Amino acid sequence: MKPKRIWKIWFSPTGGTKTIVSTIADTLSQQFQSPLESYDFTLLKNRHNFPELNENDLVIFGTSVIAGRVPNVLLPYLKTIKGNHSLAVPVVSFGNRNYDDALIELRNLLEDASFQCIGAGAFISEHAFSTTLAKHRPDEEDIKTLKELVGMMEVLAEASLVKPSYKDIKKANVELTENQLMAILMYSQGGVKSLENFRNKQANN
Questions:
Q1: What pLDDT tens digit does each residue of the chain (205 aa) get?
Q2: Out of 86, 88, 142, 162, which could bridge 57 as a Cys pair, Cβ 3.0 to 4.6 Å?
Q3: Taking the CB of residue 198, how many other CB atoms lie within 10 A of it?
Q4: What's the pTM value of the predicted model, to 2 decimals?
Q5: In angstroms, what CA-CA distances link 80 with 5, 44, 61, 113?
Q6: Other C-beta atoms within 10 Å of 146: how many?
């Protein structure tokens, strides 16, 4: 399926997480030719609402890391949001020490909120309390790497397809569509479980 909207949603006190989330979301928006939406919940006044999402949305959801965890000041808010079965990629940024359990914690919070997580990533950004730790990160090289990671769907297709293999498909001069690449990504992340919606629809027809 092609996402109808790409959302970039972030908590980013110093701007590093916003840059990372935006780079991923902007690149995906160009790749899928899907419109971009954004929501910034850095400020307390923006933690009283949340976008109305649906299963046709793809959300890049990012937060900075404090002491290896999702900032505890965010937890009450994150337990109120609703993903409504939208696809999500949790992203955390850390100040060049370690992200510890923050990424898995964010993934769990999103899944508890009815997001379907299909990937995740942890990235270095300049430390919030220092201008020398990871100075000026993410930098140009980081941005280049982020854009390359978005193109990993073809690598995943090559690893996932058996018969015909991805090489067989390329040899036949067949190009997989973005919808087909996304379907392979979803299947590789969810396995047989990702077919449940399809089976339910078939049973209801």
A1: 678 999 999 999 888 899 889 988 988 888 788 899 999 999 999 999 999 999 999 999 999 998 889 999 999 999 999 999 998 989 998 776 667 899 999 999 999 999 988 878 888 766 555 565 555 555 677 666 665 665 655 655 665 666 777 677 777 877 766 666 666 665 655 544 444 544 444 445 5
A2: 86
A3: 9
A4: 0.72
A5: 22, 14, 15, 8
A6: 21
